[in-house]
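Hello,

Our lab assistant flagged a job as stuck in the queue for most of the afternoon. It eventually completed. Since we weren't sure the result was trustworthy after the delay, we are filing this so someone can double-check. Below is the sequence as submitted and the structure that was eventually returned. Let us know if re-running is recommended.
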Amino acid sequence: MTQNSRQIQSQAQQQVQTLSPQQILAVRLLELPAVELEDRIHAELLENPALEESNDEVGADEMTGATEDNGENTDYDSLSDYLNEDDIPDYKLQENNRSRDERPEEIPFSETTSFYETLRQQLSELDINEHQRELAEYLIGSLDDDGLLRKSLSSIEDELAIYIGITTNEKELEEVLHIIQEFDPPGIGARSLQECLLIQIKRKQESDPDSKLLPIEERIISDFYEEFTRKHWDKIQKKLSINEEEFDAAMADIVKLNPRPGASLGETIGRNLQQIVPDFIIETYDDGTISINLNNRNIPELRMNPEFSSMIEEHTKNKSNQSKENKEAYLFLKQKIDAAQGFIDAIKQRQYTLLTTMKAIVDLQRPFFLEGDESLLKPMILKDVAERTGLDISTISRVSNSKYAQTNFGIYPLKFFFSDGYTTEDGEEMSVREIRRILKECIDNEDKKKPLTDDELADILKEKGYPIARRTVAKYRQQLNIPVARLRK
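-- returned structure --
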């Protein structure tokens, strides 16, 4: 039987949003914390002669973009005007809302290399193409503080297409991710704790291929991970058909593995809480006023190089009688001037976006900033801040991903202020953080000879007005790093 084949050609319309180079620059500057922004600005000053530091003297204690929050809806009229002042390089505003005589607290600045910069340094030593390098840069920037990749590759694929204008696919991203997973320390770039441990075991196998224990360790984590997390040691040993001595030796090796490779990398380079440079300074006064400032005291004042501007004017006046060399010189000057102005505008936009976001967070979590009591934190997700600011959710995510705020009660990552909500039987909305606190209190006060099971904890929480399923109780308990009842005896 003869089969006829034919080709069918069809057309489909697809709308793809591509960001301009200026928008890409603004996004990348937005992602940078204060210390890395300083390095980025100094690099731009070296690369672009049309950009220079202002000669205006800036006070050592100056914070940029100060704004006050007194519980009312304050707008950003002054900042909106400020964003449109292209001719005045005054993106750093004097802190004029401090009516008190006190001096702002001195903040220790870290001169160490950041966690992300350490990974980027390893990336720079690789011989890969430019497209792969761009994907790797984005993946590195998407890692959390533990050095793990919590986002799905499909969501990263969408982000790259929408916000950076880079087309890729999950297979390509996975290939680049495997490159990052070869970086030090072992476990970096893993998508789960299981993958993190397996990467470390396989790295050890490369250096010690004759080890008899490492294949056992790999099987424990790859084939019996669920039993491993539940600490069902007898079941694992029986399924592996090994003696107790071999099993104990393998387990002793596994517990030495690092579940948070990013955190350990931070410690080795001195990146700890004492050395965190906050991006925001939030100060609460006795009258209930809250001041919000950007901490950019080490950021130089930028302006256009007046000599470049003068040369552009001269070339513009004599456009009709220019030689080829003069035209090329004009194009060079114009390119550098445009790049310098674009960089200053991106810095201004970053400041506006950061302040707008932080003000919304303070508005939504005002009781906490007044009292410092963690239980006063309300349920808040990225969407809440996005709706309040009019900014995109992805923008709020970029701001909150690697930024810190210094308050009267300590320094907190912006992620600290976000949590899911739960509605009680009485209709009261509570933070999941508060429910976890109640759960911990129940476990702390239990009879240690007869610890409470997850079912019993669910019943107690239900009596208190929180009808939470047993599996949800188990999830919150695991988030608190509290073992199951039989291991709490």
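-- support follow-up --
The delay was a queue issue, not a problem with the job. The result is valid. The chain has four domains: 21-108+278-410, 115-180, 193-257, 421-487. Confidence is low (pLDDT under 50) at residues 57-64, 72-113, 267-274.
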